[in-house]
Every structure is written in structure tokens, then in C-alpha cells.
Amino acid sequence: MSALAHIGGSTSGSAPAAQPTPTKRGKVAYLLLLPGVLWLIVFFVVPLVQLFTVSLQSKFPGYPGYYYRDVNFGNYLTAVVDYWPHFARSLLYAGLATLLAFILAYPLAYAMAFKAGKWRGVMMICVIAPFFTSFILRTIAWRQILSDDGWIASALNALHLLPGGHITETWVAVVAGLTYNFLPFMVLPIYASLERADPKIIEAGGDLYANGLTTFRTVTLPMSMPGVLAGTLLTFIPAAGDYVNAELLGSDISTKMVGNGIESQFFRVVDGYPTAAALSFTLMAAILALVFLYVRKYGTEELL
Amino acid sequence: MSRRYPQDPTARRLASMAGSPFTRRSLLTGVGLGALGAGLSACAPPLPPWGNGPAPTATGTATAAAAAPSTQLPTDRSATDKTVAWANWTAYLDYDEEKKNYPTLEAFIKESGIKASYAEDIDDNDSYVAKIKPQLQASPRQDINRDIFTLTDWMANRVIRDGLVQPLDLIRMPHAANLRESLKDVSFDPGRKHSLTWQSGFAGIGYDKSKVGRDLKSLSDLWAPDLKGKVTVLSEMRDTVGLIMQQQGVDITGKFTKDQVAAAMDEVSKRIADGNIRRVKGNAYMEDLKSGNAIAGIVWSGDLFVLRAETENENWEFVIPDSGGTLWSDNMMIPITSTHRRNAMALMDYYYRPDVAAQVAAYVNYVCPVEGAQEEMKKIDPELAESPFIFPSESWIKEHKVQGFRALDAQEDADYSAMWAKVVGN
Question: Strand, helix or coil at B182?
């Protein structure tokens, strides 16, 4: 709550000139807002309320697969007790993937913004192109790349560097898949904020006798922080809720994430609806809490 | 219309609580709020079907009428609307690559004048039924625009139990009598009042003989040290657990206990933990066999023959384990919302003509449930007519100890699905 207030306060503080005045234009703005708000109510708020009511339902005694309306917080207890390892893995894998994506994306975005020249367009297409094919297909393609008879696994096996003998069905493959699939969400916001930065300010760092590293640390990086913040959120949030990578690249038991638990409780377990709903809500709450803490700590005035 | 209330006092109290406070009319008064109303009324979960008989006709309270979906069949429009829509699994009907159509289905359309449409809607029992069930259970029910769907035994068991399908008029289906003797009376649908087998298949051991380097005969052969991490098993609980139960000496057609099921599941858990089993998978296991991630496993018979043809590798072998194999079937049923009941029954009946069934079997290579098709197959492909994996004789089935997994009651179904989810780490 206070984090929200903090963001709200800092944005309005940073741009006092843009305060809208209650004129006719203001009313038009509200009207334009209406379709979006209606959309959100019908397709987000209503389903969310329904999901919440389902998460509190109880099993109908004697009729598995049927439920009755109730206020049963026991579902949340079941969800957390049975699935805490899945939650831990989700947050850990998503965190690792976000870190890896940042390490890969920053130099790429930097090169695109400052060094690419005429190649900038080509690089941009390379980053975006994977979106033109299905997420599932691309992940299945990774199974081929990492398969036992593929060159990566064979090479590592030949050097005796692969303890289990295979890469797929390990957590490494899951994190690699998550990193790959969400990399563009990290690259694009960082690129956008670097591209907007005035090169003269960075040059000024050198003029003031700072070496390259110091200039980067004190000038370039802070200027790109809004992009970094947005990129980490756009990577971490979907990665934590993802189940496709764990399903396609991971193993049974040891690498399953919360999403797999939700899928299974919803589709496969006969009377799992309330648990699935409780898991979804707990995941949402956990991510929301983490994001608030994170934004509060690192949020800058330029964020919004 | 009123509902039959359960005997159990707790359930009775809950049933009265569960009645929606809204009547349908009051919900629909606000036209603008229609969408919102639909969303919120969906908050009330559907009520269980009390008993399996037809609904009593006495008039009841408004709340009961609003909450309990009608068990009355929709009016049949078959005579005036000559169409039928069929939802089936992928690659499950003879297909002509050149003409881009289904020859047997085209012949049916020509002969009967009923415009049959065919959709490969289903690739997973659970997700397909999860998708259509809310519509079938809504009050009033919403048409799913399909007149036949094809579901595996255990899912057929659930939809029949939940009253989501229409009864068949066997008197209108003379060829249905061609159903294999052993499939005529199944535990999930005694007397075949609601369902008719589409195709059957076996679960057993599949392996690449050239890579394994020896014959695999029993399930324990799969856990050999040199196959560690190269074995895939089916996520279909009744096949993987069923085979292991058979190996442990349990009769999967009989009244086995929860402990016996748990013992078989423990075996799977142990093999996963030890790294013998690479992955527990659904249809996607084929991809692992192709890529070499797995070279042996618990598989479905028809898939192995497809794999053999696709990879042009004759080394792929399918065997029924020495302790026995499982036989499953996919079953055609008419969803409760269908308004083309007679057309659907005409289509089902058509596929029970031996000559038509043989044409389908020659394409899909699964176990053909139609008596007399074997003779017809001799005209098409004499070699296939001799295959026990398409036309197994009753004595062959006995000799190989092939059995169908007994239909579970609702509580067992719920318990075992939850136990199985834990085994595979979901």
C-alpha cells in the first residue's frame, strides 16, 4: 500500500505541470477510459472474484468433484503445506532466470543503443522475431537442441562434464528455457531507456575525468534504471507463474513449479478446483508482495 | 421440476444451502448487466446429480429449478437438420492425403444425406472435459455444438456418472450388435446404454531392439542399470499403475484395495527417484523415443506401429509384459446437449458395419472392436488381418493376460487422481 502511495507521490511530484484540470477535455479522457475499464471489469475483476470464491469452496461430502459455497481457508493451508517446495522453486528459478536474462540483455541493449549503427534494425528484428512463432513450439525446439543425441549434450558427455548424463529433465534446462523465453522482455525496456539517454551526458562523465567503468556505474546505469526495473518485473512475474518450461524441459518431482501444481489440481485431480484456485491466489499475493518490496527499494522517479 | 435430495443429512443441508438465491429471471432483468450476472451466477458451483434415474416430474421450488440442471433430453432436430458433429482425437480416422478428406465419412454423407463434420478437438481427456463440462453443467445447459465425443473408459465413466451424456437407443443401431463380446458389458456402462467403443488399444512395453541390444519381456527388465534414465512411462495412471499392479499380482479387474494401488504407485515413485524413469508423459513421449532421449518404456501399441512406419526403423518392438498388459478403449457418446441424437446414432451404427470398420482399422492400426471386420480386412490387407494387435482373439487376450482396468467409484477416482498427482510431483 505504502509502496503504491510512494510511486503515486513521486510521479505527481515529478510532473506538477501535467496535472489535469477538470475541464471538458478531462471528461473526454474519462470517456475514452471507459472501454478499457469495462474490459477489465468483465475479463479481469469478475473472473478474479469468481476465482476467489472458488478458492474458499468446500468439497461436497460424498460427491467428489462437486463443491458448495463456503468460507474455507483450509484450502490455502493445503496449498501452502503441499506446495511450498513448488513455490520455492518458482521464485528461485524465476529469480535465476531474471538475473541471467539481465546479464545477457544489458550488453545487448547497450550495443543496440550505442554501437549498432545501421545494424540496429536488424538486431531489433532478431530480438523480436521469436515472438512470431509459438512459445510452445520454441520450447519444444529447445528439447531438440538439448536432447541426449544433440551436440551440446554429446559434447559435454564426451568430456564427462554432465553428471546425470542428460540436460533435459534437469533444473538447468528449466532455467535456461525460462531465460530464453523471457529475454526479449528484458532487452526491450533496457534498450528503450538507454536509447532515450542523452549521449552527451555520458560523454560529460569522461570530460570530468571519470574512467569508463565509473562513468558506466554513476551515469549510464542510473539513467537506464527505469528500463532495468521494468525489464526485471516483466521477466520475473511471468517466469514465476510459468509451467510450460518446467513441463517440457524439467523432470517429475524435483523441478516442478507452482504452475504445474495449479494445472494438475485444476485438470487432473478430480476434486482439486479449490486448491488450484487457492494456489493461484497465493502465487499472486506472493508475487505482488515481492514486487512491492522491490519497487519500493529500487523504484526511481523516472519509473512511470 | 424438483431434484432428488441425498439421504445423508449433512449433504441434504448443504444441498439446500447451495441453491442459488437468484432466479434466472431476476438475473436477466438487467440486460446491461447480463455479462456480469453470468459471471457471478457461475460462482455457484453446480450441484451433484442425485441418483442416476430420470428426474421426478413433480414441480418444485424456484430455487431448485434454477440450481439443478435439467435431466430432460433436448428436442431431437435430426429429421429437419441433417447434420452431425463429431469430436475425436488426432489421427483417429482414415484420411486421404490427396483428396484431403475422410473416405469413410464421405461415404456416410453420400449414403445417408446427413452432413457429418469431424473435428480433431481432443488431445487429452482431462483438458477436453474441463473445457466442455462447465457448459454441460450450466443451468440452463449450453450447447457445445458437438453431437458425438470420444473419451477413454475412465473419463466415459465420469461423464456417464455425472449425467452428461444421452442414452443410446440400441434398437435404432442394428450394427451395434457387432461389438466384440468382451466389450459388451463394461463396468463403467453396464449393458452399453450410453457408449459405444470407437477403438481400443494395449499398453505394454515398447523398445528399440537395436539400442537396447536384447529382448525385454517383463516390467523389471525396464529397470536394468544400463537403461537408467532412458525409460519413459505413460502419465495415464490406469496404464502405468495398472501394468505394475499386474506385475505385483493384483487383479486389476477385481476389487483391489487402496493399499494395492498405493504399493504400485510407490514403485513408480521409487523408479523416478532412482532415475530409472526419465519422465512420466502423455502423448508427448513419442518425441522422446524419436529423439533418442528414451529407448524403452511403457507405451501404447498403436503408437509404436506409427513410430515404426515414421522412422522406417523396424527395430521398434511392442510386447505385452509377461505379467500382463492393459486394454483400454475410447468410447463414442452423445453429449447431453446434442439436438441431433438420431443422426449421431446413425453415424455410430455406420461405423459398426464390418467393411467400414476394417477400412478404419487399416488406417489407425488400433484394436478393432467390430466383429466381422477381420474377414473384411482380409480383402484390404491380409497381413493386418492376422495381427493380434488389431484383431486379437479372445484366446490371445487370455493367454497374454490382457485386462481392462476396473471402473473406479467416484471416491476412488478422486483419491487415486490426487495420489497420482503427488507421484509425478504435481
Answer: helix
Which string of b and e fits A241-257 if b means at least 16 CB within 10 Å? bbbbbbbbbbbbbebbb
Average pLDDT, chain B: 87
State yes or no: pLDDT of B233 exceeds 80. yes
Do A182 and A239 form a contact (C-beta atoms < 8 A)? Answer: yes
Secondary structure string (H, E, C) spanning B231-267: EEEECCHHHHHHHHHHHCCCCCCCCCCHHHHHHHHHH
What is the band of A7 on the pLDDT scale with cuts at 50, 70, 90?
Answer: very low
pLDDT in tens, A212-241: 899 999 999 999 999 999 999 999 999 999
SS3 (DSSP) at B230: coil
Let me know the angle formed at the C-alpha of B39 by A260 and A72, rounded to the nearest 5 degrees: 60
Confidence of residue B5 (pLDDT cuts 50, 70, 90): very low
The cell for A71 is 468460507
> Nearest CB to B425: which of A41, A140, A254?
A254
Distance CA A153, CA B232 (A): 19
Interface test with A, best of B63, B122, B426 (most A CBs within 10 A): B426
- For chain B, the farthest-separated pair of C-alpha atoms sits apart, in whole angstroms, at 73
Amino acid at B215: D
Among A64, A140, A147, beta carbon nearest to B410: A64
For residue B421, give the C-alpha cell.
498427482
Q: Which residues contact A26 (CB under 8 A, 6 or more apart)?
A: A20
User: Strand pairing partners for B316?
Assistant: B208
Query: A261 to chain B: nearest residue by CA?
Result: B426
Q: Does B11 contact A256 at a Cβ distance shorter than 8 Å?
A: no
Asked if B368 contacts B361 with a C-beta cutoff of 8 angstroms, the reply is yes
The grid cell for B230 is 532412458
Residue in A218, A185, A179, A194 with CA at minimum distance from that of residue A111: A194
Residue B50 scores a pLDDT above 90:
no
Kindly indicate the confidence band of residue B140, based on its pLDDT and cuts at 50, 70 and 90: confident
Name the DSSP letter for residue B186.
B
Domains of chain A plus CATH, in order, are: 76-303 (1.10.3720.10)
By three-state DSSP, how is residue B83 classified?
Answer: strand
Residue range A136-174, pLDDT digits in tens? 999 999 998 999 988 999 999 889 888 888 999 999 999
Contacting residues of B for A164, CB less than 8 Å apart: 229, 275
Nearest to A256 among B8, B46, B425 (CB): B425
- Prediction pTM value: 0.85
**pLDDT > 90 fraction of chain A, expressed in percent and rounded:** 72
CB atoms closer than 10 angstroms to residue B146? 22
The ipTM of this complex is 0.84
